[in-house]
Amino acid sequence: MAYQAKDYSYLIGIDGFSETLLKNHFTLYQGYVNNTNKLIELLNSKAKDATNPEYAELKRRFGFEFNGMRLHEYYFENLICPATRPETVTKKLADAFGSYEAWEQDFKATGSLRGIGWAILYQDNVTGQLFNQWINEHEVGHLAGCQPILVMDIFEHAFMTDYGLKRAGYIAAFFQNINWEIVEKRLS
């Protein structure tokens, strides 16, 4: 079974994200889907031999490409024209961080860290605890057993076209376009 890129063209026109930026981002996402499929084919054609350096490197690369595909899906799906934040989401964030404002400040600070990667609000599947986490690259830093609830891309391709080095402007635009209904659904 090959993975298919999802169509996120409905995002074109949202405030704070130019059509050029979004189309470039969709093309990048398509590359992760294509590379995930290529790696599956290559891995299926190789002898399952851990001593074979080619097999080992393909196996290691798979996490980067697959997570690049999946994280972009989470990211695009939690963007849309602004929606009202449900009270249930506000309450859960306030319970976990002391207040909604404290959560937002921590999430924005996480997204403002130097480097490239992702800022992700996770929920621990065991305890329900919420965490804001920095993910370096696509496959490094994920919290095992946790569900991504809100995903913000912090790679340069997500903001440089529209914001240059002004990451704070991108983060503000991201917050204006959070699809809170998707966040609520992921918290359920």
Give a verbal description of the structure.
With 188 residues, this protein is an alpha+beta fold. The protein folds into 2 domains: 18-77; 87-187, minor pseudopilin epsh fold (3-Layer(bab) Sandwich). The protein is 52% helix and 12% strand. The protein has 7 helices and 3 strands; from the N terminus they run ααααβββααα. Strands 2-1-3 form a 3-stranded antiparallel sheet. The longest helix is centred in the N-terminal third of the chain and has 27 residues, at 19-45.
The percent range for helix content is 40-55%
Give start-end ranges of low-pLDDT stretches: none
How far is the N terminus from the C terminus?
Answer: 29 Å
Strand order across the largest sheet:
2-1-3
CATH topology of the largest domain: minor pseudopilin epsh fold
CATH superfamily of the largest domain: Iron/manganese superoxide dismutase, C-terminal domain
> What would CATH call the class of the largest domain?
Alpha Beta
Number of domains: 2
Q: Which outline best applies?
A: globular
Tell me, rounded to a whole number, the average pLDDT: 95
* Radius of gyration based on Cα positions: 17 Å
CATH level-two architecture of the largest domain: 3-Layer(bab) Sandwich
Q: Strand-residue fraction?
A: 5-15%
**Number of helix segments?**
7
